Amino acid sequence: MSEQRETLGFQTEVRQLLQLMIHSLYSNKEIFLRELISNASDAADKLRFEALASPELLSEDTELGISIEIDKENRSLTVVDNGIGMSRDELIDNLGTIAKSGTAEFLQQMTGDKQHDAHLIGQFGVGFYSAFIVADKVTVESRRAGSEPVAAVRWESEGEGEFTIENIERAERGTRVTLHLKEDESEFAESFRIESLIRKYSDHIGFPVSLLEIGGEDEAAKVVNSATALWTRSRSDLSDDEYKEFYKHLSHDFADPLTWSHNRVEGKREYTSLLYIPGAAPFDLWNREAPRGLKLYVQRVFIMDDAEQFLPLYLRFVKGVVDSSDLPLNVSRELLQQNPDLTAMRGALTRRVLDMLKKLSADKEQYPTFWREFGQVFKEGLVEDHANKDKLAHLLRFATTHNGNDTQDQSLDDYVERAADGQDRIYYILAENYATAVASPHIEQLKSRGIEVLLLTDRIDAWLADGLADYEGKKLVDVAREALDLPNEGDDAGQEELTDEHKALLEKIKGVLSERVEAVNVSRRLVDSPACVVAGDQDLNPQVRRMLEASGQQLPDAKPILEINIEHPLVTRLSGEADAGRFGALSNIVLDHALLAEGTQLENPAEYVQRMNDFLLHVDSGAAGE
Ligand code: ADP
Q1: End-of-domain residue from the set 453, 473, 492
Q2: Residue 499 contacts by C-beta under 8 Å, 6 or more apart in sequence?
Q3: Domain for residue 385, yes or no?
Q4: Which one of 144, 336, 426, 608 is CB 3.0 to 4.6 Å from 85, fit for a cystine?
Q5: What pLDDT does 59 receive?
Q6: pLDDT tens across 458-486, in order?
Q7: Region 140-144: what's the mean pLDDT?
Q8: Is the domain of 30 the same as that of 98?
Q9: Who lines ligand 1 at CB under 6 A?
Q10: Nearest CA to ligand 1 atom 2
Q11: Mean pLDDT of the 336-356 span
């Protein structure tokens, strides 16, 4: 048999993760037990599921359960389950590599600062490898359900660079994970310590967890947890701490969730759902292939992880369980997709999440955390889920000209409440970042008149604004578009008739810039700046254009419209410029500056610099000659 023994190296990422984890999670070390019990319970769940189709897998050993054995004398702790078990190949794959995509990039963010790294690892979830926080050697013996005793395997590692694997014979099905505890971790072989940890970590698991103390006074194993799946209990029996523990078991997160919602639906369709909003975004929130969705049970039998069919994509951060009484036990992903009840359940679960967020939005401490972590994903809902538009709109938060900083903490209700009577528009600007938005020429007039503007700087915001379109009867208006009607523009404040002189000036500028602009108009949105560029009402917003171009899309050319501030001294100067060359140069510079101010890159920066240098020279000599 021993010729079957092989020594293999861990995948590089595993090696890095092990080092970082041992270092950064030391203050949280007892979580290893939660992780191992979670794995054991998942293994029992998986076997129960496979046994639906192949009952012979259970053989005589039909009572699924977990036991923890502690041995003070040998300083060891063992987690035993009679679940699905692992074959040789599965052991090598599961405990030698990390399957999560994006792991390498994720590990690069580690800094060596304990708190920072522990927080990151919490978002990653460490699972089995956390055993090495307290153990200097881990032995795993496993036999896959349905295989012969001689097909069992032993995996062993000291958590350095390698592990060994060999075939063994094992009478029992399932997995035994033995932790050879480090010298100063003997507390984890103490029964009182382990008993309280089991209570803390596994009371809500649907399988019995027993404790056996080898060499102890009482050699019999005793069941320590209550062995009832948490969601099947009634809300009034459950404490917040129990809900939080269950969340950690479910999500492998180390931190508490922000909130949760536990409901039983009765009637035509019967199901229980327990939905959580995590406190921090997972490391792979933006990875399209990352697993997401709820854990699906049918009549308390685990069916699948990551059932993404129950919630829309923009709620992909929600964790939880749904336990249906009506779905068939043999439901697969494909069958689930076709199930006529699915649409109704998805609609109801979506509303649950939105209601839960509505409640959370009243919490001035928690809601900002939610928004910071998940706001950008949530905004996708305005595009994805039009039916719930009104509910979603209430939950949005923005940075606006009212705050004076870039925190997204103002709601549309806040905006509407502050708006003056007669303002029937909600104004917004799209920009690359907060600094560009808040200093943009486009909002000068609005600012000077005390009209609030939403400052939209996330990539998704252009689509959000389109999807939203209006709120409480007020239309959303992009301030960088040609048509912009400002509130309370009575007859006196309205467009004054242009003088012939102005008309001639516009024509003259247009003549010089005809290659670069669609039109030249007098602006009503400017105060301090001489000019700005706006998009025609049918054209793409320049911010959107830049994003599409950056993603490689070919777009037809579209020239902007130049708007000038007829009262600005620079424009007065332009109008008095007799020299045609200088008039041309100055007109181009005014346009270049308007483009730069909104964040557009100049097509020909060198030409601009040249123009500017010439001009500066002339300014000097001109001033000296006066
Ligand atoms: P995770 O549980 O997040 O997938 P782990 O590192 O804890 O990550 O485990 C990796 C894989 O090893 C699990 O997905 C599972 O397939 C397998 N595994 C771990 N523990 C057990 C066990 N007790 N029984 C069967 N399979 C297990």
Answers
A1: 492
A2: none
A3: no
A4: 144
A5: 87
A6: 989 999 999 999 999 999 999 988 777 77
A7: 98
A8: yes
A9: 35, 39-40, 43, 81, 83-86, 94, 125, 127-129, 175, 252
A10: 127
A11: 94
